[in-house]
Amino acid sequence: MSPKHPSESLTILTDLVLPSETNPLNNLFGGELLARMDRAASIAARRHSRRITVTASVNHVAFNRSIPLGSVVTVEAKVSRAFNSSMEIFLDVWLEDRESGIRTKANEAIYTFVAVNETGNPVSVPPIVPETELEKERYDAALRRKQLSLVLAGKMKPHDATELKALFI
Ligand SMILES: CC(C)(COP(=O)(O)OP(=O)(O)OC[C@H]1O[C@@H](n2cnc3c(N)ncnc32)[C@H](O)[C@@H]1OP(=O)(O)O)[C@@H](O)C(=O)NCCC(=O)NCCS
């Protein structure tokens, strides 16, 4: 399979925060943001692999800023690294100021998706070649994050997580 670039999977979802999507403080409900990010990540994974893709894990979510009712929220998703059948998707969430139009970063998250065939069995995806400095940074750290996720899920023994161990030595 010929390699692809992260930009080929770029997915941008922009939407308003409506009253039915808020918590008692009138800020966006966390689960609603998780769902929006899952949808964007799913499309990015599909654009990279051109296969059916399923969410395997949510590796990291940081709700750094609350998102008030009426906000315009943009979720940007891009495949940061492709392994064999799995892909790490990095998500950046932006808020747009109503008057100035200036965007500020509100949250970020990292999801893992797996490409599968019609019977749900994992299938290979194309390799990925990062281009920008940020894409290269995210690509380099993705293997550590994969190993951490597998260790926490009980799918990898800690002593096999060589990339992860290297952080502490
Ligand atoms: C995700 C799923 C396909 C993985 O199947 P599996 O039998 O564990 O398959 P494997 O062990 O071969 O793993 C497949 C890939 O997923 C990766 N993976 C599995 N669990 C993972 C986790 N918790 N974190 C990171 N990667 C994970 C594996 O490392 C492997 O990656 P690679 O092929 O790139 O090396 C399977 O668990 C599944 O279908 N889960 C349900 C998905 C779903 O319905 N999601 C929606 C939530 S309701």
Automatic annotation (TrEMBL):
Q: Which Pfam families match?
A: 4HBT (PF03061)
HotDog ACOT-type domain residues: 7-119
The entry assigns this protein to a family as follows: Belongs to the acyl coenzyme A hydrolase family.
PROSITE patterns (alphabetical): HOTDOG_ACOT
Q: What is this protein called?
A: HotDog ACOT-type domain-containing protein
Q: Name one GO cellular component term.
A: cytoplasm
Q: Which UniProt keywords apply?
A: Hydrolase
The Gene Ontology terms for molecular function here are: long-chain fatty acyl-CoA hydrolase activity
Biological process (GO) annotations held by this record are: acyl-CoA metabolic process
Q: Which Gene3D superfamilies match?
A: Hotdog Thioesterase
